[in-house]
Amino acid sequence: MKLLVYKSLWGMDEGSLEDKFKRIKEAGYDGVETGLPGKKEEKQFKQGLAKYKLDFIPMIFTEGPDHLASYRRLVAAAARWKPRQITAHSGKDFLPYNQQAAYFREAVKIGKELRFTVAHETHRARFLYNAADTARLLKDVPELRINADFSHWCCVSGSLLQDQEPALRLACSRASHVHGRVGYEEGPQVPDPRAPEYARHLQQHETWWSWIIAEHRKAGKKVLTFTPEFGPPNYMHTLPYTQQPVADLWDICLWMSGRFRKRFKKEFS
Asked: What is the CATH number of the domain that holds 229?
């Protein structure tokens, strides 16, 4: 099985698109993950991907009041890029369960029609915002696939999900993509995953990621995709008054990608 590591453009605010792609390629990443480019930058975006031989995972974000109509439009736009897969932020957490299930049943059909894998992200404020409700949806919609970002579930539950292993196991068996950000009991992003005080949080996330890798191998998957998706302020902690970030975002993402490659080297050929 092959590992492909992507770099999110989130927080890369300085420099041209060309500069960003060059830096990402030189750092050893296999691709980029970001929202759909605007019309004005589509040509430059395509040229950059081709020049630096970078893969692309587009992200889509549905909007109300009709999230399904929004999904149809956005996933069709993303599919035109012929990506390996698509990451979707779907719905809103306050919408009723029957509406959520109906949305995902239709989303699965649309994905089949377009012949693309869509991984719906486990994200706060979205349909898959907690472990228990996600497990229910995964049981009711057997072909639903997710993008595993369990940092959000830590924040929502105020725990490292120690008492929710069955839901985590099920989620790992349906994960098509991983957002490798480390969350903790009080938030979706630890200040610095390299710090010893967050070692147990890192270890717990790596345990979950190992379950995903095992499920991929069991299913005979040829590729696992991983994005070290740490974010800038206000995801990243800042110092009071000065608003200075407590760590360097680029360095943290690069460290996380290297850590993942080394930690799971034996699992990838």
From this structure: 3.20.20.150
Q: Domain range spanning residue 24?
A: 2-267
State the total domains in the chain.
1
What angle do the packed helices 131-140 and 97-114 form, to 10 degrees? Answer: 60
- Beta-carbon neighbour count of residue 118 at 10 Å? 25
Dump pLDDT digits (tens) for 182-220: 999 999 999 999 999 999 999 999 999 999 999 999 999
Instruction: Supply 27's token pair.
Output: 């750092």
Concatenating the DSSP letter of every residue in 174-198 gives TEEEEE----BTTBSS-S-TTSGGG
> Any idea which residue has 């345990």 for tokens?
207
Nearest CA to 155 out of 133, 175, 129 is that of: 129
φ/ψ (deg, to 5) at 65: -80, -20
Residue with tokens 């994960």: 175
CB-CB contact of 229 with 8 (8 Å): yes
pLDDT in tens, 53-67: 999 999 999 999 999
Terminal alpha carbon distance of the chain: 6
Distance CA(58)–CA(179), nearest Å, equals: 14
